[in-house]
């Protein structure tokens, strides 16, 4: 077991034992360095892994805090799109690419915890028959997609498949973290597709990570409330 993994296990044990309670501040990067005699790089990786796995949340300028999560509990999660309630079996799902472009956005890069750099931005809407049920925007650092061509929009309809074939990166096999909330105020550019009558929407933020903890992809998804349910069983 690597040094950073031992530190993570030790901190998780302290959380599970109640040494660090829900909402309490965890060790700082400096404290991890001093307590475990490791480098800044290792300390940062420890905090990143704990955040990725849901044990902590971080507040800029204040530190890391213990999260209230189901991390320690075995649960079964089922996501359902409810299509069978609204559409015939013969109606098929497909995507339309609204745009594919190269952007540079410092605020977004800060969110991804990467240096300011160019990103691929792909905006798509997803259909069942002629009904739009979801709006999705993907952001990927351009350094992972050399020679990407944004001229052919159809090439981005099945983005994950294209990346797997062209760059040999299987997004679905990498670690990810997804958060969800309900919104009554979807952006106008989104609402015009999936919430024309101001219906509630589920809003998702999903991050996909490489094994070293670096973010490969950030995805913002909006789904009309009719087409999504989440069931959690313990």
TrEMBL record:
One Pfam family recorded for the sequence: GntR
CDD domains found in the cross-reference section: WHTH_GntR
Keywords: DNA-binding, Transcription, Transcription regulation
Keyword flag Transcription: yes
UniProt KW DNA-binding keyword: yes
HTH gntR-type domain ranges (all copies): 1-69
Family matches, as InterPro entries: Bact_HTH_transcr_reg (IPR050679), Chorismate_lyase_/UTRA_dom_sf (IPR028978), Tscrpt_reg_HTH_GntR (IPR000524), UTRA (IPR011663), WH-like_DNA-bd_sf (IPR036388), WH_DNA-bd_sf (IPR036390)
Recorded superkingdom: Bacteria
Record Gene3D superfamilies: Chorismate lyase-like (3.40.1410.10), Winged helix-like DNA-binding domain superfamily/Winged helix DNA-binding domain (1.10.10.10)
Name of the molecule in the record: UTRA domain-containing protein
